[in-house]
Write a structure and sequence with these properties.
The protein has one domain: Rossmann fold, CATH 3.40.50. By secondary structure, the protein is of the alpha/beta class. The protein is 31% helix and 20% strand. It has a four-stranded parallel β-sheet with strand order 3-2-1-4, with helices on both faces.
Length: 101
């Protein structure tokens, strides 16, 4: 058995499962990539940092990349203008890398 064969097996892409995910506080897409590799469709990624979303878009991780500030009152309206919430099966949210003040 190859030295890293179990690792390669664990990280190979899985068959699509037709479930849609929205990744909140997505950053450049670590959680999205994991869910995509597990067979999920990433419907949208939401983050305040535009550079992170540009990185995710360059890697073709999602259908929609939303640069939204969730502290603003109108974020949900902007979200629903891009993504049909009835098509979302799972919402994931990663903790921030930095603290908030």
């Amino acid at each position: 058995m190859k030295k890293n064969s179990k690792l390669h097996e664990a990280f190979k892409f899985r068959k699509k499962n037709n479930l849609n995910v929205v990744d909140m506080f997505s950053g450049c897409g670590g959680l999205s990539l994991g869910f995509q590799m597990a067979g999920y469709n990433i419907k949208g990624m939401i983050d305040f940092d535009e550079d992170s979303l540009e990185t995710a878009e360059a890697n073709n991780l999602a259908e929609h990349y939303l640069n939204l500030d969730l502290f603003k009152e109108n974020w949900l309206e902007k979200f629903l203008n891009q993504i049909n919430f009835n098509e979302v099966d799972i919402i994931v949210a990663g903790p921030p890398c930095q603290d908030f003040h």
